[in-house]
């Protein structure tokens, strides 16, 4: 009950909230359908209950917001219907059409109690988002960009975006690495989440990493498996699809579902239903090259064998003919050689006989001429000998006279003979004095004469005047 204080009627908070509760209970007696965006599911695993945050937006701004409750049993039933219809669980960020009733309590305030959610409405919204992404890519002219790239004839170097522990990735590796044809691949994993709200950002981040080293790869494979058709709406994300469409090398996908192709798969260079089919697709590329090569190889071997056989037969025939022809030629040439040998022997004997006779005649002539020449040269030698002896005696006499004259001159020039004639030699320090300028007053001189020497000291030098 309200109390009066200073002429004021005052209600307690409980009284106010109870009044609001009664009013809302009287006004909203039945459930009704509401459409809103589930901003957060707020699932609590320990209890199994959900406490969704519901919002309504206009032009990107929140214009209404309310809390809701989805009890465990209702959540399990609704989530199963979502998985059956959308191939997606109930999750954050989806638009829903739900059946709810208003609940208000003094303690927890206003809450919507959700009893059912129509997955068909959400499916239509997701499909609408998917079509919106497709139209935006087409309007920007990039929808077919990755399709137009050229996959190498033998795509051997593959960058893989997957979860290392996923069954699909394991299946892909098993098919690739254990292929019976021993085809070799270079595979490098770039790990990322492949479903859920965080998947588009993580996949895009890994694509950016691969783009920096794109020259090391022939293609990128996005591999997801083991989850069936659940959690595929993230592949309709515009940013992820645009990243795939604009990627500079071919992107091939094996996301692991058979229906409802996603936008990311549509814009990728090639799409396989499962990781196993993706591995088989790559192996088939090698088959498409290997099988014709092997066919050509077999054809070349067969043709080479036929040519070798034909040439061998032709060679045997040519050898046989060659032996026959060469045998005939050899026999003919052997007869010619035999005849030539006989003729050569006869001609040699005749020639030797003639040459022997000529040599005999030359020998007689040479002996006769040699005797005549020897006699003639003997006379000339004797004459030359006598003349040489005469000339030698004359030359010896003349040389003896010249030697006698030279001896007399040498005797005349002997210093002793010169001194005998009254000449003398003056020495200064053991050397003969040839110029007055070499002598000065006080010098000791030695004067050599015929029978001795005179020692003197210079008192004065007088230069003789020239006439």
TrEMBL record:
Primary location group: cytoplasm
Substrates-to-products reaction catalysed: Exonucleolytic cleavage in either 5'- to 3'- or 3'- to 5'-direction to yield nucleoside 5'-phosphates
A biological process from GO: DNA catabolic process
EC number: 3.1.11.6
Domain Exonuclease VII large subunit C-terminal: 143-456
GO cellular component: cytoplasm; exodeoxyribonuclease VII complex
Protein name: Exodeoxyribonuclease 7 large subunit
Keywords associated with the record: Cytoplasm, Exonuclease, Hydrolase, Nuclease
Pfam families linked: Exonuc_VII_L (PF02601), tRNA_anti_2 (PF13742)
Domain of life the protein comes from: Bacteria
Cytoplasm among keywords: yes
Family: Belongs to the XseA family.
Keyword Electron transport in record: no
Enzyme class: hydrolase
GO molecular function: exodeoxyribonuclease VII activity; nucleic acid binding
InterPro entries per the UniProt record, alphabetical: Exonuc_VII_L (IPR003753), Exonuc_VII_lsu_C (IPR020579), OB-fold_nuc-bd_dom (IPR025824)
Compartment(s) where it occurs, according to its Swiss-Prot or TrEMBL record: Cytoplasm
Domain OB-fold nucleic acid binding: 12-117
Native organism: Aequorivita ciconiae
């Amino acid at each position: 009950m309200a109390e009066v204080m200073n002429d004021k009627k005052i209600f307690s908070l409980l009284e106010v909230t109870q009044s609001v509760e009664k009013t809302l209970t009287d006004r909203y007696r039945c459930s009704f359908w509401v459409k809103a965006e589930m901003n957060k599911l707020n699932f609590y695993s320990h209890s199994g209950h959900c406490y969704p945050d519901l919002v309504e937006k206009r032009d990107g701004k929140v214009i209404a917001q309310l809390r809701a409750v989805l009890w465990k049993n209702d959540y399990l039933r609704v989530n199963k219907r979502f998985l059956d219809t959308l191939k997606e669980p109930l999750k954050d960020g989806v638009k829903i059409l739900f059946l709810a009733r208003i609940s208000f309590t003094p303690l927890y305030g206003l809450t919507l109690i959700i009893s059912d959610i129509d997955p068909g409405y959400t499916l239509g919204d997701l499909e609408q988002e998917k079509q919106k992404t497709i139209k935006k890519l087409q309007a920007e002219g990039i929808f077919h960009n990755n399709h137009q790239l050229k996959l190498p004839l033998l795509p051997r170097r593959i960058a893989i975006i997957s979860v290392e522990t996923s069954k699909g990735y394991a299946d892909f590796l098993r098919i690739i690495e254990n292929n019976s044809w021993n085809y070799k691949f270079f595979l490098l994993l770039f790990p990322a989440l492949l479903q859920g709200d965080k998947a588009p950002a993580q996949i895009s981040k890994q694509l950016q990493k691969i783009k920096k080293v794109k020259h090391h790869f022939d293609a990128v494979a996005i591999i997801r498996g083991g989850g069936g058709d659940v959690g595929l709406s993230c592949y309709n994300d515009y940013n992820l699809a645009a990243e795939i469409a604009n990627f500079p090398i071919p992107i091939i996908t094996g996301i692991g579902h058979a229906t409802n192709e996603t936008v990311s798969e549509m814009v990728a260079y090639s799409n396989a239903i499962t990781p196993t089919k993706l591995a088989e697709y790559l192996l088939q590329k090698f088959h498409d090259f290997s099988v014709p090569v092997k066919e050509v190889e077999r054809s070349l071997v067969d043709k080479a064998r036929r040519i070798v056989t034909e040439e061998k037969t032709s060679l045997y025939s040519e050898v046989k003919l060659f032996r026959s022809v060469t045998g005939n030629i050899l026999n003919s040439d052997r007869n010619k050689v035999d005849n030539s040998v006989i003729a050569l022997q006869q001609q040699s004997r005749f020639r030797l006989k003639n040459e022997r006779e000529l040599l005999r005649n030359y020998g007689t002539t040479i002996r006769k001429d040699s005797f005549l020449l020897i006699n003639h040269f003997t006379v000339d030698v004797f004459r030359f000998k006598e003349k040489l002896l005469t000339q030698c005696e004359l030359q010896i006499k003349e040389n003896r006279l010249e030697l006698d004259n030279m001896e007399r001159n040498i005797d005349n020039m002997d210093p002793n003979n010169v001194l005998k004639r009254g000449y003398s030699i003056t020495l200064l320090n053991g050397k003969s004095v040839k110029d007055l300028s070499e002598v000065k007053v006080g010098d000791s001189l030695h004067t050599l004469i015929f029978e001795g020497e005179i020692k003197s000291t210079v008192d004065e030098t007088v230069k003789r005047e020239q006439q």
